[in-house]
Amino acid sequence: SHDALRLRDGRLVDISTCPLGRMPGQVLLFRDVTASCAMQALLSRHQRLVTMGEMVASLAHQIRTPIASSLLYLSHLRSARMDEAARGRCLEKIRSCLAHLEGMVGDMLQFARGGQMGDEIIAVSALVNDLELLLRPQLGAHDCEFVIRDDSGGKCVYGSRDALLSVMQNLVVNALQAIAEARGKEADGPGRLELRAATRDGKTGRETVCLVLRDNGPGIPPEIQAHVFEPFYTTKSQGTGLGLAVVKAIVAAHNGAVWLDSKPGGGTTIGIELPVHHEA
């Protein structure tokens, strides 16, 4: 079996165990994998930068659109015949374009960094509570029920609190948008989101924390599911196609995994799995 521990000085140590055959006991092997993990992170960042380089034309087009729209609305403001109400609407459209542009640039920078892992010890319960407080205004505006089941048992994870909070916020906002779109078409009652935090033994034998978000939205068609984590893939007119790619990069930087299960008409379940932090 294999496990990995982060020491107090920041080094990563891989622990391997091997039975002694018919003899009692086991052999424990400790291997410093700090350098290899750093090299792997560097390679991952290089691959992301290559991907961004291949998509320069697409990025230029996406950035040009809100800039061109802002310039158009600014030219309208020069009209002496425009009343105050029309000016207000024009200014709001400019603000919306610039906010969209800021979001795109932020997504691109975060994707390029890959959600570099921090050095904080984060209680999962505190992370979930912070998320609920952060999203409370949006949940109220969408008339959506948000149910939290925290079975994390006081466990902690290691990394960047802000990055992980942005991951969960991204997932919840995506779900809210999907629910709102479905309700706009069918008006079939209030939306519902359920977030559960729980521990389990991961595939490698180490203890992990799973954060699983379920919604009662329209679900995602299979042909789209295959591409949702790809950079620059989006079905939204105002999307960058980097939201879930950023989620995947941040979770990977925290030595975790992300998965999705969805059926058209049956809602979507998306989860992230992160290793539990144990003091060495």
Describe the structure in brief:
By secondary structure, this protein is an alpha+beta fold. Helices cover 47% and strands 25% of the residues. The longest helix is centred in the middle third of the chain and has 30 residues, at 84-113.
- Into how many domains do the coordinates divide? 3
Biggest sheet statistics: 5 strands, mixed
CATH homologous superfamily identity of the largest domain = Histidine kinase-like ATPase, C-terminal domain
Query: N- to C-terminal separation?
Result: 18 Å
Q: Helix content range of the residues, please?
A: 40-55%
Could you say what the CATH topology of the largest domain is called? Heat Shock Protein 90
Give the ordered list of helices and strands: EEEHHHEHEEHEEHHEE
Average predicted local confidence, pLDDT:
79
Q: What would your notes on this structure say?
A:
The chain has 280 residues and is an alpha+beta fold. It has three domains: 2-32, no CATH class; 37-113, Helix Hairpins (Orthogonal Bundle), CATH 1.10.287; 120-275, Histidine kinase-like ATPase, C-terminal domain (Heat Shock Protein 90, 2-Layer Sandwich). The chain contains seven helices and ten strands. It has helices at 34-54, 56-77, 84-113, 124-141, 161-186, 222-225, 243-253; strands at 2-6, 12-19, 26-32, 120-123, 144-151, 156-159, 191-201, 207-215, 257-262, 268-275. The strands form three sheets. Strands 5-7-8-10-9 form a five-stranded mixed sheet, covered by helices on one side. A three-stranded antiparallel sheet has the order 1-2-3, covered by helices on one side. Strand 7 and strand 8 form a beta hairpin. Helix 1 packs across helix 3 and helix 4 packs parallel to helix 5. The protein is elongated and about 95 Å long. The two termini are 18 Å apart. The mean pLDDT is 79.
